Amino acid sequence: MEVQKIISELQYKAVRSSGAGGQNVNKVSSKIVLTFDLKNSNALSESEKALIEISLSTRLTADLILILNCDEDRSQLRNKEIVTKRFLELIKKGLILQKSRKETKVPKSAIRKRIKNKKNISQVKQNRKKPDIE
């Protein structure tokens, strides 16, 4: 994964922020919308694309485009830095391959202990009953 090559493929769009901020919100476009087209990316190999597609499937659109927003700061430049950093962290996490889970057997001692405990509880409940006199 070449970071500079990926950053060159990112597309930024400045949009007006929503929420509180007075007149500044109405006249300054400080919110940044980052888009990354995974399908047409040249910076990632096919195996990396497949890995990211699987791990970030909930965050991708139907056209395999990743969209991130940032309106944390009043500065457009700062928001751009924040969203780019967030994007790179997301991609790095997406490229990490999860270890497959090894199934383990339940130890025989644990099974014996559980059965013994069941028998003890059963015996306690049997002792609570009134004895049959016949």
Can you walk through the features of this model?
The chain is elongated, with a radius of gyration of 29 Å. The model has no long low-confidence stretch (mean pLDDT 90). The protein has a domain of 93 residues: 2-Layer Sandwich (Double Stranded RNA Binding Domain). It is an alpha+beta fold and 134 residues long. It has a three-stranded antiparallel beta sheet with strand order 1-2-3, with helices on one face.
The biggest beta sheet is recorded as: 3 strands, antiparallel
Point out poorly predicted stretches.
none
| Termini Cα gap | 84 Å
CATH fold-level topology of the domain at 3-95: Double Stranded RNA Binding Domain
**Pattern of helices and strands:** HEHEHEHH
Any idea what the shape is?
elongated
| Rg (CA only) | 29 Å
Mean pLDDT, to the nearest integer, reads 90
Q: Output the strand order for the largest sheet.
A: 1-2-3
CATH architecture of the domain at 3-95: 2-Layer Sandwich
Strand content: 5-15%
Text of the CATH class of the domain at 3-95: Alpha Beta
The count of strands amounts to 3
Helix content: 40-55%
Number of helices: 5
Question: Which secondary-structure class do the elements indicate?
Answer: alpha+beta
